[in-house]
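lol ok so funny story. i was supposed to be doing the assay writeup but got distracted and ended up predicting the structure for this chain instead. priorities right. anyway since i did it might as well share w the group, maybe its usefull for someone
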Amino acid sequence: MVGLLFNGLDPQQRGTGVVHVIERLSYHEGRMPLANAVRQFIGAAIALISGHSVGRESPSVHLGAASGSALGTNLELPNNATRILVASGAAAAIAASFDTPIAGVIFAMEVIMMEYHIATFIPIILSSVSGAVLGRLVFEEPPFFGLVASPMQSLWEVPYIILLGLFVGLMAVWFIRSLSFFSGFIVKRAIWQRTTLAGLLVGLGGLLVPDVMGMSYNLINTAHLTELAIPTLVLLLILKLILSSACVGLSIPGGLIGPTLVIGAAAGAILGHIGHAVFPELSSSIGFYAIIGMCAMMGATLKAPLAALMALLELTSNPHIILPGMLAIVFSSIVVFELFKLDSAFLVLLRKRGLDYRNDPLSQALRRINVSKAMQVDFVILPPIITREQAKQAKQALENNPSWIVIEQENTKVLLLAADLALAVNEEAETELELLSIPASRKSLTKVSVNHSLDAAAALLAKSEAEALYVTRRISPVEENIVGILTKESIEAQYQLTIINYIVKRDKQMAKPSV
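and the output, tada:
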């Protein structure tokens, strides 16, 4: 059923989940198609109900982000504002799914936007709180994994917690590489064949251990993990890791955050059992190690250590677990990102699609600036051929300091320096002037909407053969006006101005006398 739902569609129309949200933010300024959100809702519901080894949070993030995008589009907001609404919807989804509003905010910043900026915090916080409140109203009781996190028994456990972090880091490496393998496996086959293969693998795994099917949140329970023997936990960990990476890699529309929590809890419980057997007097409870392993796996797999740490705190309501949790998360992340040089699972999936996330400092700065901040409004619009009288009138208009002439033709527009027209009016004696023939410096133009960010404008300019952009604002469903001119030099100048303002502000802060 899932395969038939997505069969025959091109990859752009099949995009779902957190990876799709990151892709739309990076390449489409956060504008998300409604049809994809509808398919995500139906496909994820089928996958979760039928027992695929995926989580519910990735579809929730997609739907939340699509809601934010739809709101921005309907209100005709600039794209840099729509990006914030997309991140806000994602934060609300995480907060509602796990009742973790702080983790929702950090997840939106670390995973979705991959940057921290003060202007985005307030709307994302408000949205995350709203999602958590609504989740509590609808479900009455917050989601509870059943893990009782007692405090760390002794500081002698610190080396063992570091060992747990290293072990979980290796599991995260295995998960990311397995995800990469299945993403490239029979990639040229039809989508229904890939999803059917995923279903067969999960069904066979379910014959061995039925609990690996579905979200498996019932496994994250102190009583359950205490009762399970180490061989059973090892089998559960291996099957959950392989089947979850297979489902996500083979295009089942589900999440991978939930499976990472289950895998991490199983890994932590294994080390908890071993610790109890070797050091019974010093070792903490099974639940203690399980929840630390759970969040260490999440942080290492998603490259979101702060979100994992906040989730650890909110899920347990136990501040005493932060210190060991930080140790485990840091060392699991070191294994993945420093030792094996891997990127987050979401970026691995994005690159498997032939895409990447542009997150350099220039892109970050330009995404936050609307084209209206940098466009030049000192221009006049003229036809390709003007009379001598029109030329004189244009020259008088140029005395008001317009910098550019936009030569408007049927299918194309050309940019002309105003100074060149003024010179031609002085020198030419003909009754008519052909603006495309007079000696002048001209630039080819292409269109950009006033809603776009400077990052999107710069990308459009680099992709097209044009040398400058004319900025339009829609005034009716079928009509739009030219409101500005944007050149490569003006984009670079705005970026330089942003950097200078940052340096000046920083220097002022540093120059303040200490109290």
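The longest strand covers residues 468-476. Strands lie at 379-382, 385-387, 404-408, 413-417, 432-434, 442-449, 468-476, 479-487.
back to the writeup now i swear
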